[in-house]
Automatic annotation (TrEMBL):
This is Transposase. It comes from Natronogracilivirga saccharolytica.
Length: 75
């Protein structure tokens, strides 16, 4: 289905569809790849788990900054 057909089917203007798809793409780019601050609250660190967007969850026991960096760059 083309954009034009989609808009006709859902009774929206093509320009409105374009506006919202552009806005959505920009919001996805802004939120993707950012870092999240973690506050362990003084609790000892037993390990870490990285969750990739595809659902894979590698776990690291203890704290190995080099290994964690490699896992982050794999994605």
């Amino acid at each position: 289905m083309t954009k034009k057909e989609f808009c006709r089917h859902h009774q929206i203007k093509l320009s409105t569809f374009g506006y919202w798809t552009t806005r959505y793409r920009r919001s996805c780019k802004e939120s993707a790849g950012g870092f999240v601050q973690i506050d362990p609250g003084g609790a000892p660190l037993d390990g870490m788990q990285i969750i990739y967007p595809n659902g894979v969850r590698p776990s690291v026991e203890g704290y190995d900054a080099g290994l964690i960096g490699e896992l982050i760059h794999l994605w």
